[in-house]
Amino acid sequence: MLAEYPDTGCCIAGCTGRENRIERLVQGIGGSGLADPAGPEHASAAGAVPGGVLVGRGTLELAGMAVPAGGAAGAGGGSAEFLGVLQRAPGPLQKGKKSPGGLQLPPVMEGFFMKLEPESRKQLLRIAGGTAICTAAMWVLFAALHLVGWVRFDYTVVLASLVGAAVAVGNFAGICLMVQKVIDEQDEKRRKAQLQASYNIRMLIQAVWVIVAISFLIGVIITVAEPDLQVLAGQVPSVSNMTLILAVAVGVGIFLVAAVLRMLFSKPLSYMLLIFYPVVFILTFFVSKDFLAIAFDSGGVTTGPMTVPFIMALGIGFSAVRSDKYAETDSFGLVSLCSIGPVLAVLLLGIIYHPQGGSYSETVIPDAETSVALWKLFESGIPHYMKEIGGSLLPIILFFTFFQVVSLKLKKKTLIKILVGILYTYIGLVLFLTGVNVGFMPVGNYLGQVIAGLPYRWVITPIGMLIGYFIVKAEPAVYVLMEQVEELTSGAIPGKAMGLSLSLGVAFSLGLAMIRVLTGISILWFLVPGYALALILTLFVPKIFTAIAFDSGGVASGPMTATFLLPFAQGACEAVGGNVVTDAFGVVAMVAMTPLITIQILGVVYQYQERKKDKEEMLAQPVKVLPLEAYGDADIIEL
Asked: Which of 176, 57, 165 is CA-nearest to residue 119?
């Protein structure tokens, strides 16, 4: 016979015909020292029922022990013997209670295998055995085909098959653990969300090598097409343009892989920043001082109008796969990590490459007295940059075409929109690079020479700060970041407040950069304290502000910085007779550093205001006052 207790989801099967003696749910065994989770009203002694067996239909919590469905919890003769008991977190009836008997599971049961239910372990052993048999059979087949010379059979085949078998068995074990976890979840929506998230993560783990390869390829081809990088490469002496561009592109590709994996596996951004930035500054001791500023500038210029929209969209797409509450927060941070890669790559390039002839040739201001002569300059530049931009965009177009044919298969209307967007991008980049190289950069250089040539040279510092305050508003990538931040935070971080923080940060950084131009102070005296303060702030501000701050640093140092502020600093340095390579280069790095501090300070202010608001709302809640008649004679009234 079977005695059921539907309120608890459990039943008791008796072996001796004395089931009628059990009138309540048995949750303890006499003399075993187990606590009664449900309270004394359900207490009974199993020891009085020889041969009685507890069977959990759901999950029966026994002093921190869980009895799975269909599993035996105790048996026979009043003993305290337990069979097949698993250790789990306290259930709803067991919260806050401890086992007075101090019952502990053996250490061997704390392993991964023993976390599975008995039936799950049984099925897992079957899957593992079947996989082993199939793997051995495949080895035999390959060995036979190898003897006749049809296929190769060596250690690589054995290793690959073992890895595949391990992935298959581990995948099944992960499914079992996830199913066990969601069984106890009462909310249907949360149960489905957990199962979907588990499925997505397992699929991503199996496809991790594909993700790594594609992310690296995307990082490289997008960086090669970045116009800011091409502008910087053209201004760097002693290193060929293609060498510098490829080094930076590889750095971006590697760190884009790291950023994607961090986001997929939900690892804190601050930990990675605290690891990589010290490595960057350690490498500076082994690099020529002529290469330091260029290395840090390369990290800023790679996050321009091509890279930022693409990488941020990639982050939003990957975060959508995770489907958890931290996914949107972790979608930020890709730009910040992709800014570290170029710095490391160029520092290593400086160590290995040993560039010679680092002298800087002065910029020649084109002389165009009439509009006809000016048009001749643009006319000669446009064909060159059409060819250059076409070569840069070609890998992106081929990459998209391949995936359109293989997997995307977008509709005709969507495909036309994308093609029109690519055409606009091509025309815009051609006009941009032509205007920058023919007119914009020479103007910045000339303006810097004129201001620094005044009797009061120090005036270039406040003028530079004023230019820095307003030039951020002309950065296209800043608006992309502000829009996505305001959208993903549901207005919690206003775009105007973020824009003001960026403007103040860039203004301060331009002031410091002009001081460097006038005095020749090493850039490390500014970068080391600045990044140290930024990394310390990551320990105290909300994670979302840390990710946004380090993203905004790369975004603020976009095309306007590389094409106007850098030539401006170069012209000023030429006028005062300084070393352009060591004193003028580095302005992009300074612009990329200060937003890390200002945005995180904004996060501290935001956090303080939110806590103050919550405290005020809590104090504003009315206090319920009960009349004296509501209290009993023995109640204590607090005054």
From this structure: 176
